[in-house]
Specification:
The structure is a homotetramer. The first copy, chain A, is mainly α and about 210 residues long. The first copy, chain A, has a domain at about 70-205: Tetracycline Repressor, domain 2 (Orthogonal Bundle). Chain A has nine helices and no strands. Chain A has helices at about 25-40, 45-55, 55-60, 65-90, 95-115, 120-125, 130-155, 165-185, 190-205. In chain A, helix 4 (about 65-90) runs parallel beside helix 7 and helix 5 (about 95-115) packs parallel to helix 8 (about 165-185). The N and C termini of chain A lie far apart (about 45 Å). The relative contact order of chain A is 0.12. The interface of A and B includes residues 39, 174, 180 and 205 of A. Chain B binds a DNA duplex (21 and 21 nucleotides) through helix 3. Chains A, B, C, D: Pfam families: TetR_C_24, TetR_N. Chains A, B, C, D: Keywords: DNA-binding, Transcription, Transcription regulation.
DNA sequence: GATGAATGAGATTTCATTCAT
DNA sequence: AATGAATGAAATCTCATTCAT
């Protein structure tokens, strides 16, 4: 369990929001993201979150003005951290678009499977959330996607990739990467590493189709 | 004492038998599946369901002994119908494994996008459901998967497909097909038909990889 | 319009013994008495009763106009049968008041323990029952008590018994006899017969006190 | 990950710990015991309890995680207090086992009649309560009984009492004492004191039988 | 005589939220 | 910063009762 070896970067790389800088907040956010991911947003009560942190329900309201706020912030934090890791990886990975894309997919699935199983649930945002919150979350997805899209476009431009519909390819890729942790959860822990690599290899086929 | 003929073992006379599959039940199941798919299982109250059917919520308990039961039954019905349609299609589609697989994917995505948008939600079964219900739902998935797996295996045997890990390919395929309705929901209705075809084409790449 | 159907008097449930009519009614009454005794009046739903009889809830309303009616009738039946057995016994048992009283107690406790465990629950009549029903049930108790009271009075008159307060003695006796099945339920079946005899012996002390 | 120090074994974070025995809890327990005793456990809704305390029913769940929990706790409190009073009395009452037993019975019946009419109802524990709760309640009974049993044994040892079956005697005694408040409830208030004394005198016969 | 269907009132339970301290 | 207490709305579920067939 609780394996993610927390990226202890100094302050969040993105001075994204006015997020108060306590480490307490980070603890709450982590616990919340974990729980929401595990059981789904609706199924997790604030008491669950509080209990895991060993504080009382009410005290969460000191940091967040509502459950939705907490939910949004948790997803945002997760997304930020996630994107940051992907960006860092890209910075360290030279080579052709193909090589870099494969590495990116591999890292993404790895994060999902090892550190955020069931994050998929998190992105199934409740319909009734206010538009502003929904937008914030979609923004995350976009930044995320851009990383992949850029590489795919480079590969197409260089003739390395052949793709009919870039949007479709990206959507399929994302879907598969998001679900991966769910089916991998049923694999013995030892087999997961290999599964992650297989997913990366398999998904590369999406950009190398020969018509 | 006197006359009662049967030994009623457990004091709590709960076990509600599978009721007849009358027309009414089907109506309830349909309404429920629709709503659960639209907004997620947790977000739909029995009152919502009852309202859509124009009955009182209590009366749902005549047919189902709990919300979970209703949920499971709704998924099951959906899955059965879905599989039946896929099987029917396969029966009518001759040709190579490749041609038939493409048709199968196309049909599957088509059903998802046009008839059961957001069915994905339905299959994200609440963790806390009793094991028996979870098993029932996994069974559905298995039957479903078998259709695809058989074709893929045929294609491999005939040399038409090249696949590294058949399990991984099937999982990725399924993930993409399940999510399709979610992103298609944002497309203008006119564009969806084309999107479905594109998904089918794109996913075929997963079995035609040339190393 | 009014007078015509006066002739039709569907068996008015008011009349004390419309009961011999139909062995079906007896079956219902037996099942109900048993269940009410086992788990308490409130905890037994009409569905429980119906289920044990393998009919539907609604059909009970053909025989009884309400749950309370059924409850009252069940108690009444039980009480009548019980009293009848006691009277029969007395008719067959000659001897001194002491011998006869002991036999009576023995029989009463025996019925309770062997045939109607937990009948005690039945006599804890819900407070909110209409006065008329409560009266009917008190009437039962009185008939019952009279059997004991008569014998005790005879014993006092003959000098065989010494009793300070006859009312108190009868109440204590009754209390102990009613509870007996509850504690005997925890005894191994083989030991119950002996326990019944011991209760009878013990309770005789209540009328044989020497000041 | 960060801070959660404990391995929270079962996902459902239900286990509500025994809360502090503040004054408020006592108020709730008293109100509940009173109501349950008056009308029977099943017939008392949490709203009744809340109403009497002038709070909302939801707030009871801050203290107790279910109605059963509240029920058990109420009985337990009642039983504890009751036993304590009996023990205190014994501490203050010198004399032969006979004198002390009579005082004990008198006190017990007095408490029942004057302070907890219908406590009997409380001890008719619903069958469907979880075994653990049933055990807790049986434990109470045992502590209670021990007080009486010890005295009876002393009396036998000293030759003051003659008893065939000590278990049976204790059970009968207990039954009579428990029911006393029910029949006394119908007496005019003025007569109750005398009735209590009579019960005590009458029950003493159970240990003084001369064969 | 009996059933299947439905209702409506009320019960238990959950939970986001507020607030005084 | 945090807690304990409480609230109120809504959700799940139960059940006696009715009624057309």
């Amino acid at each position: 369990m609780g394996t993610q070896q927390a990226v202890h970067d100094p302050p969040p790389p993105s001075a994204r929001v006015q997020r108060k800088r306590g480490k307490r907040i980070q603890e709450i956010l982590n616990a919340a993201a974990e729980l929401f991911g595990e059981r789904g947003y609706d199924a997790v009560s604030l008491e669950h979150v509080a209990e895991r942190l060993d504080v009382t329900k009410g005290s969460l309201y000191y940091y967040f003005s509502s459950k939705d706020e907490l939910g949004t912030a948790a997803i945002e934090t997760l997304g930020d951290e996630w994107t940051a890791r992907l960006e860092r990886l890209l910075g360290q990975t030279p080579g052709t678009p193909g090589a870099r894309l494969r590495a990116l997919i591999h890292e993404h699935v790895g994060i999902a499977v090892h550190d955020h199983p069931a994050a998929l649930r998190l992105f199934l945002v409740p319909r009734e959330w206010p538009a502003e919150q929904r937008e914030r979350i979609k923004g995350l997805r976009r930044r995320h996607d851009t990383l992949f899209r850029t590489l795919v476009e480079e590969g197409i431009a260089s003739g390395e990739f052949t793709v009919t519909s870039i949007d479709t390819v990206l959507q399929c890729m994302h879907a598969a990467m998001s679900q991966a942790p769910i089916w991998c959860a049923e694999l013995p822990a030892a087999a997961r590493k290999k599964a992650v690599a297989e997913v990366a290899d398999t998904l590369m086929a999406l950009v190398r189709s020969a018509p």
